[in-house]
Specification:
This protein is α+β, with helices and mostly antiparallel strands. The chain is built from nine helices and six strands; from the N terminus they run E-E-E-H-E-H-E-H-H-E-H-H-H-H-H.
Length: about 290
């Protein structure tokens, strides 16, 4: 299935572990180029994210950003460092005895004392697992979007292939009359000076002229390249690079046709061909 390289996906979840949100953006690029932004506490996910991207995508610049707001399950419950608390109270009693005043430390002041309250390590394993599961979901959405956009571009390219073949057919129909008209005009002009020309040289020049004006090979190659474009669009897997090469070949034949053109209508047809090929080339830049 044809895929575009341009897409966007956003997936989020809120649970006890916290709030997780992934945003994925992809644009055209010659190779697969991931740019991953992760919270510091979940930095270890980068390898897993890269592996998942490499398994699903072949080309494109992909920006992946994760936002994580820890919840109660991730943060855990505060604990009291009883040993440190007892030391603080004993010191407070000694100081009170020394100055002759009762020690009445306020509970809130004790809680603010560095180290009295301890925050347990966050449950990052659960957060990391949930983040990777959510990333898989976001990546599914991104791939589906790329596929839908790819199908749209495929339809546009097939439409332009049809229009290109219409132009080729019109040139084929037009060329016999064009060549016949040229031969008639040349024959009329040479009739006046035929006695002064060498008959053998004249026939040789006429043959060379006919060869220079013959565009059958260009027409044949244009049709062959269009058939290859259609074949690529109906295939599976990445096709962007092959189609880019075929666009170059199509453009080369259209340029040759234009340079050989002995007729205004044929020239206009060649110009229209180049316009259609350029439109396809622009679309190919977004295909994987």
């Amino acid at each position: 299935m044809i895929k575009s390289m341009t897409a966007f996906a956003r997936e989020g979840v809120t649970a006890e572990i916290g709030e997780l949100t992934w945003e994925l953006r992809s644009v055209n690029h010659r190779y697969l180029e991931p740019h991953i932004r992760l919270p510091e506490e979940l930095r270890a996910l980068e390898t897993g994210v890269r592996e998942r991207l490499g398994a699903r995508l072949n080309r494109g610049k992909v920006d992946c950003a994760l936002r994580f707001v820890p919840g109660s399950a991730a943060a855990g419950e505060l604990a009291v460092n009883h040993r440190l608390l007892e030391q603080v109270l004993k010191v407070a009693d000694r100081i009170a005895t020394r100055v002759g005043e009762p020690a009445t430390p306020h509970v809130i002041d004790l809680m603010r004392w560095p180290g009295v309250l301890e925050e347990p390590p966050a449950d990052l394993d659960s957060a990391a697992k949930a983040a990777l599961e959510l990333f898989d979901k976001a990546l599914d959405t991104l791939v589906e979007t790329r596929q839908r956009e790819g199908e749209r571009l495929r339809a546009l390219m097939l439409e332009r292939c049809e229009k290109l073949l219409v132009q080729v057919a019109e040139v084929r129909t037009r060329m016999p009359d064009v060549l016949a008209g040229i031969r008639t005009r040349i024959a009329e002009r040479l009739a006046e000076v035929r006695e002064e020309l060498d008959q053998g040289r004249l026939e040789q020049e006429m043959a060379l002229l006919a060869q220079r004006l013959d565009v059958d090979e260009e027409m044949d190659r244009l049709e062959v390249h269009v058939a290859e474009v259609r074949k690529a669009l109906d295939g599976d897997g990445p096709v962007g690079r092959r189609l880019d090469f075929l666009m170059q070949e199509l453009n080369r034949e259209a340029n040759t046709l234009s340079s050989k053109s002995p007729d205004a209508d044929v020239t206009l047809a060649a110009v229209e061909m180049k316009v259609l090929i350029e439109q396809m080339r622009e679309q190919v830049q977004n295909l994987e």
